[in-house]
Fold this protein.
Amino acid sequence: METSDLKHHYSQQFNSELEDIRSRVLGMGGLVESQLGTAISALTRGESDSAEAVVTNDSKVNAFDLEIDQRCTTILALRQPTASDLRLVLAVFKTTADLERIGDEAKRVASMVIRVVGDDHENSLLGPIVHLGERVQQMLHNALDAFARMDLEAAINVVDEDINIDREYENVVRQSTTRMQEDPSSIPEILDMIWAARGLERIGDRCCNISEYIIYFVTGKDVRHDSLEQIKKELGS
Amino acid sequence: MLVAWGAGAILDQVYLFLLLALLAYIFRNLYNLRRLAIWLGNPQFADIPVHFGLWGDIYSKVARVSLRQAQREKRLAELVNEYTASTSALPDGAVALDASGRIRWFNDAASRLLGLQPAKDIGQPLLNLFRNPEMANFVNNPDYARMLQVSAPGDGERKLEVRLAPYGDDQTLLLAQDITERLQHERMRKDFVANVSHELRTPLTVIGGFIENLQMDESLQIDSLTRPLELMAQQTARMGRIVEDLLLLARLESDSVRNLNDRVDIGELIRNVADECQALTDDVPAIDCEVASTRRVLGDGKQLRSVVTNLVVNAINHTSAEQRVDLRWFDQGAQSLLEVRDNGEGIAPEHLPRLTERFYRVDAGRSRDRGGTGLGLAIVKHILHHHDAKLEIHSRLQEGSRFICRFSSSRLVD
């Protein structure tokens, strides 16, 4: 979608309100991106200081969530938007919810760093988890870029990428099981790490959700719960 | 017309002939007008259909104007092409933003560094794509003197230095430079200094210890050995101090140790340091303390002590026993100032800007004799920087020097 699309209203005020929620949800996305980035680099380097910063900053993400919800509600109530305006408000509304959950997962990873990594920095499971985390980070970035540009193709690519994320996650789980069999005393710690990996994998799913909202906004088609092939067929590509 | 009238007069049909001639004239003009309209579609000198009379004149003048126009357009296009080509060749990313922060234009480097898509992203608010929260804060509260170091969007490994410059009506130019390599070099340099200093510490301790043993050894009390051993002990101690200072600087630079929560009583601190310095040797100048402020500084007590010691020792080293050193702690509005003033030899103005550089010496031979490491003021500057304070140096030759540490209100408590 061209940004000029948002300028089609006679009411200048309405235009700027729509622009505003879009910019805000992307601002929130930026914060969540940096939260996830900090959590992953804390994991890589075993820095509990920056991990603690992630935990404290989560309240900022929540504040964004409340603020954007409030604004969306106001627009729905006062403007009664239709067609693409309505789809934009709904897409923003749902994206905000997903971003808030992604923020929670980043916090989960950070608290795992505080609990586990401090004393066991050389853990062999860290490598695969960090790798998974970096891929998820890139995926979130691409999903938000697609949202900014309302780029259908980029959104479909994000959904495509989720298969790889799932594969990496399975890899982490497989290695964890082996480790647990070898050394049962490490089970509590490894469980913690599996939770973190699970959190990262969930972020991948939420990025897919965001992409589906983009598809919904651009085409008006609801492709949730469809497989990738179905989505592609439905969009005729 | 005259011919028509003549012909009409002969044939006795004057009006008919005049009418015919007039009609012919009108048709010719209409025909020429139509040709002009067609020709104006692509006005070329070579295609001019008429070369004489009024019409010829019109054609050639219009052709000349349009030629000039075409030349000007070509020059302008060349200029624009040149400009675009030169900005594309810039290694730094440049993005032009309008008053509401939308992208108006960007160069190739910007699309590479910031991940912008040519043409597609024109008109998009930059912050929608460059979503880093620090960046949002930076663009929304522009400070044109500041530079922001920030990770490139979508590539956490790449670091950018971003700055803003205002231009035109409410427009902003954003410049982004890739500083990944520079930061790497800086880190390597710091690591190197820290590692070298660390590696030197142990051998120096061993050497110093053995020299001390040798000096104590009764069987070695030979005149020819006393002086060399004394010098060795002195130099080893000095090198030890340099290593310690370098390590302190490395720690200060690494930013990792920041415990700035002590409530430091600067008044008490300067009295202690003054007492210690006077107790140390006899030939020190008189040191006076004046404490006019009751404010305390939120900071690291040890580091601030090192600031005061460094400044006082410097002052003592550059004054003779008859001269004086004054320490003052006082308020100036919301700020509080620590002043170390002496009436010693002073510093020539050309040295002032470089005083806080590492190993910079005004008079190399002399300060080394006094046991200085050449790192004192560098350390002072770093510590003050950590405490959001500034170091000001005023000095005149033969009149003395004033070193002022200016603490801002954010670090002061009553």
Summary: The longest helix of chain B spans residues 53-89.
